[in-house]
Amino acid sequence: MSWPRLKSTVEISYESFLEETINPKTGEFYPEKDNDGRAIKGTGVTYYIANIYRIRRADGSEFLYTKGRVDAYNSLGDPVSRSISKPEIWSKTNFSYKMKFNDKTNQMEKVLQGPSGSEEVYALPFNKENLKSLSDRR
Questions:
Q1: Domain range for 57
Q2: Residue 2: its pLDDT value, please?
Q3: Do residues 3 and 69 both lie within one domain?
Q4: Which of 35, 54, 62, 113 lies at a CB distance of 3.0 to 4.6 Å from 96, suitable for a disulfide?
């Protein structure tokens, strides 16, 4: 079951960027084109990392996140850029449930009450390998 939610302006902007830079027939990013309109091999999309951040949570766990810029090309081969902030972090919606007796099955069941809040989920743990991988992309 999905839960309806409003998209943030950042999410709408990024989706617009993807619509502009991804070929709907192939699902791949458009390449850069030369002056004659021919595709240049090996071009497409690049994420340039400007800043790398390390965060320590209250439980002692440590994570990395970045801020940077995504450069790609539209269908004409013209450059298109968007700033990207914290792509390694996403918001998880939490839901509350209530136990209710079901007369048909004669058992207790969990019944969804609705959203009960949200939390930030950090997807990239801090370690040497992850830090090196991000540093190499600067």
A1: 1-88+125-138
A2: 59
A3: yes
A4: 113
